Amino acid sequence: MRVTLVPSATNPHDPHQFLTSFLINDTVAIDAGSIGFYRPPTEQARVKHVFLSHTHIDHIAALPIFVENAYEAKSDCVTVHGSEAVFKCLRDDMFNDRTWPDFIALSSGAAPFLRLEALEPGRPVELEGLRITPIPVNHVVPTLGF
What we know:
The protein has 146 residues and is of the alpha/beta class. It has 4 helices and 10 strands; from the N terminus they run E-E-E-H-E-H-H-E-H-E-E-E-E-E. The strands form 3 sheets. The chain has a 6-stranded mixed sheet with strand order 1-2-3-4-5-6. Strand 5 (78-82), helix 4 (84-94) and strand 6 form a beta-alpha-beta unit.
């Protein structure tokens, strides 16, 4: 298993990490703080699953950019995994046709932008050769650790 901390500073020599995203084996992302700014869109499209821990902006900031970059107009789209609290925030505050186009509503056809998969704490998800278990974490907003 290869885990990559996705950099969030624009200068490669800057040691600061302002946003949170990890890539696992280039196909699974944990959080989406900077994933939409990393690598060209053709490489971003290799990421088929994004697990969102919670809705603070440093963990979801680049999600809409990533979803747009990774879109290939095929039935095989990105799956966003998260809690119902995360999905409510995405619907109300991000994909709402004000902040960003409503990619959730636009995903009902044959070439969806994304798919939402609800996570249940303690129930493992197996995909891409990985077993990921969401665990509740004490934080200011509802949060899952993985």
